[in-house]
Design goal:
Chain A has about 190 residues and is mainly alpha-helical. Chain A is built from 9 helices and no strands. Classes of the chains: A mainly alpha (about 190), B mainly alpha (about 120). At the A-B interface, α2, α3, α6, α7 and α9 of A face α1, α2, α3 and α4 of B.
């Protein structure tokens, strides 16, 4: 994973303090993990304003579900699971909504803004990654997000997505095939 | 890193035996990073602590209402369509009289029906 691995005891103390109403402790959790959540949410939904709303919802959900966090997994894994579930729900919700009212589902979903970058080459690279991600099927997109943007191993990906390792392996090869086809056209 | 290198990196990150731990860092170096706005943390805390406990319930309520609305609206539309089809099959037309069930009644029979004579 790209993010620094935090001390488990320290994490537990932060959770404990948050549960007892310490706002600063929860704020620390938000600050530590917001970048990780941003990669998942924005990788899956594109860099839209909705992504930030979902990001906020992830931490609001985390706050209310902290009493149920038993510390069996790492806090980052727990947060990642919430982020993945909320993001996939949002994709389903949008798909349902747009399929009811318009045929532009994919176009609407794929609206994104590219952040300011210092060079053309960087902008192009960012566009390629974002466009390729958004062109993928959501169940493959989440695999690519976990591997490429989060740096998770196959085992960690399986744990977060709550699927067997065999399922992740088969999705990896199918995702790779789909990604190849998408990148050829770009 | 040029575009073909980026593409290769993306594809190779999906190899089942790939060590992907360095990939996010490499992408960030190329300017491919995802961040929320700089006051993201404050927004979350404001939502949590200024609006209190009601916010989550409110969000969930709106979500459920949204979902319920689609279900009810779709069921309603389906019922109306079935009703129209059945009226058309029974009455043979979709005129106002067909809707009111008056298509086969003559004035005299309505008077008889209403007065009982």
């Amino acid at each position: 994973m790209i993010n620094k691995s935090y001390n488990v005891t320290e994490e537990k103390e932060l959770v404990k303090a948050s549960l007892s109403g310490d706002k600063k402790a929860f704020s620390e959790i938000v600050n530590r993990y917001q970048k990780m959540v941003a990669r998942t949410v924005k990788g899956m939904l594109g860099d839209s304003v909705f992504a930030e709303d979902i990001g906020q919802e992830v931490f609001i959900n985390l706050y209310y579900s902290l009493p149920g966090f038993r510390g069996e997994s790492k806090l980052s894994t727990y947060i990642q699971k919430i982020a993945v579930n909320l993001t996939l729900n949002e994709i389903k919700r949008r798909k349902r909504f747009f399929s009811m009212f318009s045929h532009k589902a994919n176009n609407e979903m794929h609206e994104f803004e590219i952040a300011d970058h210092d060079t053309e080459e960087r902008k192009e690279a960012s566009e390629i990654v974002t466009k390729a991600l958004l062109a993928m099927d959501p169940k493959f997109r989440i695999i690519l997000t976990m591997r490429m943007l989060q740096g998770y191993s196959t085992k960690e990906t399986a744990e977060i997505l709550e699927v067997p390792i065999g399922t992740v392996l088969s999705r990896l090869s199918r995702a790779q095939e789909q990604l190849r086809n998408i990148l050829i056209k770009m | 890193m040029n575009t073909s290198e980026i593409k290769n990196l993306m594809i190779s990150s999906l190899n089942d035996d790939a060590d992907t731990i360095e990939v996010p860092g490499r992408l960030e170096k190329e300017g491919i990073s995802y961040n929320f706005s700089h006051n993201f943390g404050d927004k979350v805390l404001n939502k949590l602590f200024s609006a209190g406990l009601s916010i989550k319930r409110e969000v969930e309520f709106v979500k459920y209402m949204n979902f319920a609305f689609y279900r009810i609206a779709l069921t309603g539309v389906a019922a109306i369509v079935v009703l129209l089809i059945s009226i058309f099959i029974i009455e043979g037309s979709l005129s106002l009289n067909s809707f009111l069930g008056l298509s086969d009644n003559y004035d005299e029979s309505i008077v008889c029906l209403l007065t009982g004579n």
